[in-house]
Amino acid sequence: MNDVYELVTVIVSPEAFAAALRIATPLVLAALGGLFAETGGVPDIALEGKLLAGALGAVVGGYFAERAGFGAGAAFGVALASAAACGVALSMVLAALAVGLRADAILAGLAATMLAQGATRLACSCLFESESNTPTIASLAVSTPASWAWVKDQGLPRWVEVALLSHGPLTYLALALVPACHVVLRHTPFGLALVAAGGNEKAARAAGISLAWTRTGGLVFAGALAGLGGAALAVSVQQFATDMSAGRGYIALAALVLARGRAWGVLAATLAFALPEALAGDAKRIFAFPEELALALPYLVTLALLAVAGARWRS
Amino acid sequence: MRAVLGGVLALVCALLAGAVLIALVPTLASWGTGEPVVPVSPWAAYRATFGGVLGTREGVSWAVYHAGALVLTALAVAIPLRAGLFNIGGEGQLLLGGLAGTAAALGLAGVVGPAPAPLAMVVLVGASAVAAAAAGAAWGALAAAFTRPGRGANEVIASLLLNFVAAGACQYVVKHHLLDAHSGVVQTPSIPLAARLGRLAAVPGLERVFDPNTPVTWALPAALVAAVAVAYAFARTRWGYELRATGANPDAARAAGIGPRRVAVSSLAIGGACAGLASLALVHGHYGHYGAHVFAGQYGFLGLATALLGRGHPLGVVPAALLFGVLFQGASEITLETSLPASIVLILQALAITAVVAAGALLAPRGRG
Amino acid sequence: MSSAPGEPPTVALDGVVVRYPTGTIALDGARFTLERGSIRGLVGENGAGKSTLLGALCGFVPVVAGTLAIGGMSEPAFATRSWTPRRAIARGLGMVHQHFSLVDALSVCDNVALGRAPRWCGAFYDRRRARDEVRELSTRYGLAVDPDAPVHALSLGERQRVEILKALAKGATALVLDEPTAVLAPPEVRSLFAVLRELARGGCAIAITTHKLGEVAELCDAVTVLRAGRVAGELPMARATPAEIARLMMGKDPEPVPPRAPARRGQRALQVAGLAVDGDQGEHAVRDCSLELFAGEILGIAGVLGNGQRELVEALAGLRPTRAGAITLPPGGTIAFVHEDRARHGLVGAMSVAENLVLGRHHESTFSGRWGVLRRGAIHREAVRLVALHDVRPPDPEAPAATLSGGNQQKLVLARELARGTSALVAAQPTRGVDLGATRAIRDELVRARDRGVAILLVSAELDFVLELADRVCVLYRGRVVLEQTADALDRDAIGRAMAGVA
Asked: Residues C82-99: what's their mean pLDDT?
């Protein structure tokens, strides 16, 4: 009973919320990207690969920017741009297969992911002489608002500081992108065309919409957003490690299933998935789980929620 | 016929793309390290490796060894595919099957110790096979629980996540319950000799065909028998008929009284069993224990590509598996023959899979005009 | 009112050749003309090429050869790859499809605005202006619809109105409608015709396809008859009697319908009491539906598509859960089903004719032996027998079912279901997409089954077919049975009113 009580206090603590938000950031970005792809009618199984590509892109971008003498802020910007670009590049491969050649989207996504897995390892070992990880990139370290002097001077309550202000720029970007994506999908001609392309091909074609260009456009968004998600991964540890995405791309897909096509649903679902990982360390401590179970917890929770979601709603 | 040529052409394109990459890698490396470029000739690399694989008895034998396992993992994909389902969980099914088979062999080692060798072999291999198939089948059936009628990639997502869960679970079990403390790495102790599969080269008459130093074992004919059995089942049995109907038109099949849940579970379970059995070729046929090598193989995903190349036909996967076996072995040797990093193997495999997917799309009958 | 004599017709198609990917010729040198301010009917039996011709005109179907002239000026892009729907609408040719091309997830005004969305500040979609446009068109042409309603919630009649609005919003001066009355009850048909006449008065050129000759007589100024991909005749309405049109459609005089023996009613074969079934969106598709079916009679259920027929049949078949009520069969009673969507529920196109003929019976001991091995010889023999008995063409048991024509596919499904030897048979929309010859054959099969004692539930939106066959007629409106009449006391007007929900 004491254990449960302890767990509950941990769950409702601002630290847990902050950790969940931090862990959810790459998931939110990847899932938003996947939302664009899926709305257009191309389920994006390659999110996993895009996360990897983006993570490596961020590290490589930051590394070369530092070597070229850029300042910390500029190098960070280069890193983000490079991450998005890598994600888009992988999206183009997926687009070529799934839109251009009309290959099955699932197979194309798997192929693209495997290409990303191999390519990131190869690039890593070529550029950094180690297949498994890269040196840390200082410019990827982020400063959080909570660390700024004038924020500290305000004397805000602790939970505000910890839960809301102790995040890096990518987290705030991810949160801002949720309503932004909603606006793009519901209130722009492109979003309308995308919904049509995914909803009724014949209607879209009859309206003069080019399925190929619209879907590719959706995939570009997917690649850029998921690439940024990868950057978030790299930023959290300031380096790249092989296969560091560890299935998060698929968790993002599961979040999309729960979200049922709504941008806000994406946020809710990814937080739901991120919470177990945030609590894994504490749960392990309190309940004495073995290490491997704690690591497997995110996948198990995702599977459980996926099963429930599938049972209650039609896909 | 067009399909076969298309597939071969696809693989050739993949190799060409790989060649370009190989030519570029040294340049890339020099960017990073700042050292001068050490050029690598793709043609020389290919000649040394694929030439060796295709030209020597040893190379061919290794390719055939890989093909044996690939036939089974390809069947794992092809069987549910006929019912309209994607089995992406082959990696996890293979891992769990391998663990179960190894555990069975290790567990029964004491029991059959005093028995005569042939009997011991039958018992150990038989028990391992049953355990491996059962574990793979259970994992496959678990993925079936996530299938949803209509569109939706739920079982794909679930299978992929289950792969991760399986990997974690197997790591845990080996590390905490089956660990070979002497080896210093995470792997099980070696299975008893009686549990090892006999090499085909030992059969009189076959020593000229297969190199005796390569692990081409009885797993190969077993895999071929499995492929033939599946082909027969598809064409001639009630189960196969129901599978084909569900895959071709799930609504009509359901209206005719063929339960979609039953078809999904049976096809994924039998497919999973095949993937589980593939582990026997690796553990009982080659490595002799269950450890890192089994984890790293990628036979599951390559099985998917093999099934695609074989157009989902149980007999078609056999030549496809041979092609991929050659690719696998050649790619693995590249790291030995040249200074290229090991990840080049992964890239070549990924290029091959991409090429097969692209070829499949190009060759598919064009939709209504 | 039509164009002044001597003036070139508004739209003139000629020599159109369309080929299916399988190689069969769908249209073989067809021609078609439209005049400003007049309504032309395009008739022909199922499979003659009506939808294909309209689709070719408006850029939806690739054309191998042919010429198109609009207002006398030849259109060079026609019969080339650049003749797309977008091009066609730019020239004023708007098409209203039989199966609506609307995006369910979007609202009415979004669908109408699709492809030419009005913009706000350059980058955003100005939904308000789109909404206003829909309201304006709506009142101008009398097509009442709520601009913000999501399309998936609209009835079939409302969706058709949106389709028409779409075409008008894009500036169509020639409006082409493919089987528009198939989804409307008789009073809704009247109001559609009023709208079309109003449009014609305003200068639009209108073409509609239908296979109900009565409608052609009521609405059209002229009629073109297609047969097997060619034009069999073009007549002004004054000279077009139904008999003449039917003769042109079929190439010969229609055979008289043979009289059938009065029904010999037997035991009750099926009872439905207070049935309630939910539709795909959770709506109440079937509410409090009750009916009784007896052996040796045909109970016809008339009703416009979309009033719960599909859900009722699916519930009877066990494919859809029921919310309330009971379905009772007598002990030992069994039902066979001919579903309304044969491509979806009836046949497996990729499998052979023989394999389709044992679908659902494959577990019987005749066809399936020990260890689950199929008895191929028995299956083949049964296929040969059924194909001959029911005149399925081509009579090749190994041919893939997808290569058969619509009529032969339906005969195949009917053959299979009758061979089950059940006490009851439910036939849903059995003549949909079926040519006249096969329709006749199906009619005869159903009568023969009835005379053998099978209880038949015939669900069809083709009122003529139902009235021809049924011993008792019910009308299904919004999920309820609202009227019941016997064959000897039919009041066609009352039935029509009931189909539209008018008391």
From this structure: 84
Whether C346 sits inside 8 A of B239 (CB atoms) is no
pLDDT of B172 > 70? The answer is yes
* ipTM exceeds 0.90: no
pLDDT of residue B369: 28
Q: Distance between CA C143 and CA C128 in Å, rounded?
A: 19
Looking at residue C282, its pLDDT comes to 75
Chain B residues in contact with A101 by the CB 8 A cut-off are 358, 361-362
Q: What percent of chain B has pLDDT over 90?
A: 35
- Does A293 reach chain B within 8 Å, measured CB to CB? yes
Task: Clarify whether residues C259 and C241 are in a common domain.
Answer: no
* Same domain (yes/no): C73, C188: yes
Whole-angstrom Cα distance, residue C110 to residue C127? Answer: 7
The Cβ of residue C464 has, within 10 Å, a number of other Cβ atoms equal to 14
pLDDT for A315 equals 30
DSSP string spanning A210-279?
Answer: -HHHHHHHHHHHHHHHHHHHHHHHHHHHTS-BTTTTTTHHHHHHHHHHHHTT-HHHHHHHHHHHHHHHHH
Q: Does residue C6 lie in a domain region?
A: no
Give pTM, 2 decimals: 0.84
* Domain annotation covers residue C343: no
Residues of C in contact with B263 (CB under 8 A): none
Residues C282 and C390 both lie in one domain: no
Q: pLDDT band for A116, please (50, 70, 90 cuts).
A: very high
**Mean pLDDT score of chain C, rounded to an integer?**
85
Domain extent for C377: 353-420
Q: What is the pLDDT of residues B221-250, one digit of tens each?
A: 999 999 999 999 999 999 999 999 999 999
- pLDDT for A313 equals 45
**CATH code for the domain of C187:** 3.40.50.300
Instruction: Kindly state whether residues C279 and C392 are assigned to the same domain.
Output: no
Same domain, C380 and C489: no
Specify the amino acid at residue B259: G
My answer on whether C284 and C324 are in the same domain is yes
Residue C186 covered by a domain: yes
Question: ∠ CA B66-B69-B71 to the nearest 5 degrees?
Answer: 105
Cβ neighbours of residue C247 closer than 8 Å, sequence gap 6 or more: C253, C254
Residues of C in contact with B244 (CB under 8 A): 348, 350-351
Q: In this structure, how many other beta carbons lie within 10 angstroms of the beta carbon of residue C196?
A: 21
| CB neighbourhood size of B56 (10 A) | 12
Q: What is the pLDDT of residues B244-257, one digit of tens each?
A: 999 999 999 999 98
Q: What is the mean pLDDT of residues B187-195?
A: 84
Judged by CB atoms closer than 8 Å, whether chains meet at C351 and B244 is answered as yes
Identify all chain B residues contacting C20, using CB atoms and an 8 Å cutoff.
369
Check if the beta carbon of residue C275 is closer than 8 Å to that of residue C315. yes
pLDDT at B9 over 90: no
Among C211, C234, C250, give the residue marking a domain's end. C250
Confidence of residue C234 (pLDDT cuts 50, 70, 90): confident
The answer to whether C484 faces chain A, any CB pair under 8 Å, is no
**Domains: count for chain C:** 4
Question: C62 and B257: CB-CB below 8 Å?
Answer: no
Residues C394 and C495 in one domain: no
pLDDT tops 70 at residue A58: yes
* CB interface of A with B, residues 81-110, below 8 Å: 93, 97, 101-104, 106-108, 110
The interface residues of chain A toward chain B in range 186-225, judged by CB-CB distance below 8 A, are none
Which of C420, C438, C454 is where one domain is finished? C420
CB atoms within 10 A of CB A122: 23
CB atoms within 10 A of CB B182: 6
**Do both C477 and C329 map to the same domain?**
yes
Q: Examine residue C325 and state whether it is found in any structural domain, yes or no.
A: yes
Q: Best of A132, A303, A305, A314 to disrupt the B interface by mutation (most B CBs within 10 Å)?
A: A303
